[in-house]
Design a protein that fits this description.
The chain has eight helices and five strands; from the N terminus they run H-H-E-H-E-H-H-E-H-E-H-E-H. It is an alpha/beta fold. It is globular and about 50 Å long.
Length: 195
């Protein structure tokens, strides 16, 4: 067991070292886009499946409540969080539409969709991105593996932050670290005025 535990730590550390080299530019670009949307009075909409849904809710908690310091609440919605609505859409329409239908109702020009996916191939995530694109909503996609179909949908103004791994557990760890970076950078941009 001890060797297995050490192997998990070593693999996690190595993945983070690779990510630290590969991702800062995209994270900075995403933080600026998210901050600008919030400064314009727009909102951040966040979605993901499974563990990514939990990460979506963590990010929204950071924005609505606080990250590490007290400050005013920021407008964000985790469209993954309403189990009654998700089950109703799944039953009456199709599971592929659980995020798309919500976006079609509440997303407005200037908002940003933060989509969190392990591999970029879940149909409901693809439909969410397609809906955002149809409404000219900018996308920030936290992705993994080879980016999947989601990566192919992104336009020149959209931002992909792809974890350098094909392993779900490592991708989730990188995505959580990215969410923490984004939360900190947004606070700095909006409240500390750091360039």
């Amino acid at each position: 067991m001890n060797k297995t535990i050490q192997a998990h730590f070593a693999e996690s550390i190595q993945t983070k070292i690779v990510a630290a080299e590969a991702l800062p530019e995209a994270i900075e670009k995403a933080a600026r886009a998210l901050s600008e949307a919030l400064l314009r009075g727009n909102k951040i909409l966040v979605c993901g499946n499974g563990g990514a849904a939990a990460l979506a809710q963590i990010f929204v908690a950071h924005l609505l409540n606080k990250y590490e310091t007290d400050r005013p609440a920021l407008p964000a919605i985790a469209i993954t969080a309403d189990s009654v609505l998700i089950s109703a859409i799944s039953t009456d329409s199709h599971f592929d539409e659980i995020y798309a239908k919500q976006l079609s109702a509440i997303a407005q020009s200037g908002d940003i969709l933060l989509a969190i996916s392990h591999g970029g191939n879940s149909r409901n995530m693809i439909r969410a991105v397609e809906t955002a694109l149809s409404k000219s909503i900018q996308l920030v996609v936290l992705n993994g593996v080879d980016g999947g179909e989601l990566a192919g949908l992104l336009g020149s103004d959209d931002i992909e932050i792809r974890a350098p791994s094909d392993k779900g557990s490592r991708i989730e760890e990188i995505h959580l670290l990215v969410i923490n970076c984004l939360s900190d950078l947004i606070d700095q941009q909006l409240f500390l005025k750091v360039e």
